[in-house]
Structures are given as C-alpha cells and as structure tokens.
Amino acid sequence: MKLYIDPGTGSMLFTILIGVIGAAVYSLRMLFIKLKYRMSGGKVEIANKSIPYVIFSDNKRYWSIFEPICREMNKRGKEILYITASPDDPALSCQYENVKAECIENENKLFTRLNFLNADIVLSTTPGLDVYQWKRSKEVKYYVHIPHAANDITLYRMFGIDYYDAVLLSGDYQIEDIRALEKIRKLPQKELLKVGIPYMDEMAKRFAENSDVSEHPRTVLLAPSWGQSAIFGVYGSKIIDVLLKTGYHIIIRPHPQSFTSETELMDKLMNEYPENAQLEWNRDNDNFEVLKRADILISDFSGVTFDFSLVYNKPIIYTDPKIDVSVYDAWWLDKPLWTASALPRIGKELTEENMENLKELIVTCLEESEYAQKRADVKAETWAYPGESASRVADYLVNKFDELNKESKEGEK
C-alpha cells in the first residue's frame, strides 16, 4: 500500500523539519563560536560572515522592481546577493559588479536556503514570510517588503506582510491600512516608509525618452488579471467577440500566471481566436512597447491599469468583478478598497449591461478630457516621489544597515 500525504500536510511536515534542523544548526553554531572564543582566551574577534544585503525574488518579472535598486546600490559600492527562483531571470546576466545572483529553482532547496540565511537585511516583494514555508531565519536581522503594484496593500492573501520588520510604500492610504491591521491583530508596529515605486519611475523615464509611436490603427489592449474574478473568469470569450466587432486592432495580453494556473483556458482561447491582421496575442516579458502602442486599456483589478493610466497618461476601461476579499487582508477592514475609489476617476466601468456598446464606450474615453485632472489626483495619492524611489530605497537600506550594526557592536561591548 502506498503512503499518501496531502500537500497541506506535506507543507506542514516540511515546516516542522526545517524548524528542527534550523534550531539544531543554530545551537551547534553558537556552541562552536563559544568554544572558539574561550580557547582563544577571549582575545580574538569572531568574524561576522553575515551577507550585508540580500534580495529575494520568486519570479523573473520582479526584476523591473529590483533592477533600479540594484543599480543604485551598485553605484554606492554595496554588495548584494540576489536570490531568484527563475532560471531565466535577467538578474542572472546583469553586469553590476557588486550584485551576485544565484538561482534556486527547486522549491524545497530554495526555502531551505532562505530559512537558514545569514544576512543583515533581506528585501523582497514576496508575501507570506513566516506564514507558509518561508520562515524568518534566526540569523537575519531585518526583513523589508516592497510591493509590486501601485494599489491596495491589503490585496495580499491574509497575513501576507504581518511578519516583515518594515514595508516600503508609495501612498498614505497604504500606511493607514497596515496600521489598522496591526491594531486589529495586536501586532507590533512595523517600520513604514513612503519611498515611491521603482519600476514606475523607470517606465516613466523610458517613456519620456522614447514616447514616439508610429502611425497605427486605433488599438485596444485587453490585459486581464487571472483567476475567477478576472475578466476571462467573469465574461469568458464574450469580451473578445465584442472587441472584434469594433473593427479596432486588438491586442490580448493575459497575466503571466494565467499560463501556469489557467493553462486549459489559455489554450482554448488561443485556439479559438488565432492571431490575424486584427488580433494579436502578446507575451513579451517587458510590457513597455505594448503599453506604448495601445490607445486604451481594458482590464480588471490588475496593477497594469495604474501603469497604463499614470505613466502613459491614457484612459482605461475597467470591469468590476466583485472581488471576493474573504481570503485577503482587506477582509479585516470595514472599508472599500482604495482601488475601487481610484478606478472611476481614471476610466469608465464595463458591465454586462453596457458591453454591447463597448465601441461607444471606447470612443467616449478617448475623446473626453475629464479624466486628465483626475488621473493627476490618483497619481498624487499612490505614487510618491516620482523619479526618486531607487535613491530613497538605497538610502533607507544603507542607513538601516548602519543602524543595525551599530546596535550589534554596542550589544557585543
């Protein structure tokens, strides 16, 4: 008879095993250090082998967030270990002298490496620290989180950032929501700092330097998120049919996760709607060119809505899929999502009732000027310090490193 262990139990057993091994390794290391110290008569300093700065990225698409930070830290001569789970992560081929990248594709090996890490500061955009398999290492002094989108920080799965020491944000509403969650859950206050959004700064810089678009037919970009609450989950292929009826050029750019979690759906749609003169499917790793080419974006709760609207200063059409927040941190707060208040200010809502009039909706959004000032208002709320974020993040990391090591030295004395 074969022994079956369900995934949940397997994850729990792995966590227990890591905890036991971690405690044993830590105890043996401390014993070795004490013996070495006593045998030397207490006269030699024990070298600190801690890695100063570690960046952990669970996917190659987050290089756009970390690359500006790596570049800024490299300019300052600060050494960074960049750990990625993607074998084709651009970080692995970056030419920054002070950035060393390593890939650990195997999940168990990856978490083992992270859970026993010896570092001063770990920076990551990955939620779930100390909730699932990724545990806080006893030998990491400080964990810092940076979001990967310009929207609600409460749209992580529950407890996603509870056990970070600090969170680097881009808007006051995010700070208010984290403080509210900490109060409800009786958590110690994290260090919260507004620094801006590195990848949007880079995108804006690129657009300022290369904003020319060749003459083209009116182009609509459909860029949904993934899951049952996203556009394809709610409307299926109907929205593609309606878009094709407009006669406009249509680009469909599904969320990268759709090709992993919704493979059957993606295969079905791409077979039913093959590329032709009017329709193209886009899977570019870098979305800069496709966002630049599009005249208008149709999306749902995806963060790309804010990239398109606030960086390229173009209108959007959004769907309201009635997000089920029961699995997200937002469930704990008795208030509407900030995203829900922002979307009506930067575009028009697409519903089941007005979908057949989608062409008229597109024309209205493109020709009316009412959204220009409202986009500026939304930008001011969610994009602090445009153009300064990488420098501000580097300032924070360097200052925090100095602060942590000053405390360590005083503790040793």
How would you sum up this structure, described in words?
- This protein is of the alpha/beta class.
- The chain has two domains: 48-197 and 387-412, Rossmann fold, CATH 3.40.50; 203-382, Glycogen Phosphorylase B (Rossmann fold, 3-Layer(aba) Sandwich), CATH 3.40.50.
- The protein has 15 helices and 13 strands.
- Helix 2 (63-75) crosses helix 5 (198-209) and helix 2 (63-75) packs across helix 15 (389-412).
- The relative contact order is 0.12.
What would you say about this model in short?
This protein has 413 residues and is an alpha/beta fold. It has helices at residues 7-39, 63-75, 107-115, 172-185, 198-209, 231-235, 238-245, 258-261, 263-272, 288-293, 304-311, 338-346, 358-367, 371-382, 389-412; strands at 51-57, 80-84, 99-103, 119-124, 140-145, 166-169, 191-194, 219-222, 249-252, 279-281, 296-299, 316-319, 347-350.
Please tell me the CATH architecture of the largest domain by its name: 3-Layer(aba) Sandwich
SSE pattern: HEHEEHEEEHEHEHHEHHEHEHEHEHHH
- Number of beta-strand segments: 13
**What's the quaternary structure here?**
single chain
Beta-strand percentage range: 5-15%
List keywords for this structure.
single chain; 413 residues; alpha/beta; Rossmann fold; seven-stranded parallel sheet; six-stranded parallel sheet; 43% helix; globular
Give the helices and strands, then pairings:
Blueprint: H1 7-39, E1 51-57, H2 63-75, E2 80-84, E3 99-103, H3 107-115, E4 119-124, E5 140-145, E6 166-169, H4 172-185, E7 191-194, H5 198-209, E8 219-222, H6 231-235, H7 238-245, E9 249-252, H8 258-261, H9 263-272, E10 279-281, H10 288-293, E11 296-299, H11 304-311, E12 316-319, H12 338-346, E13 347-350, H13 358-367, H14 371-382, H15 389-412
Parallel strand pairs: 1-2, 1-4, 2-3, 4-5, 5-6, 6-7, 8-9, 8-11, 9-10, 11-12, 12-13
Helix pairs in contact: 2-5, 2-15
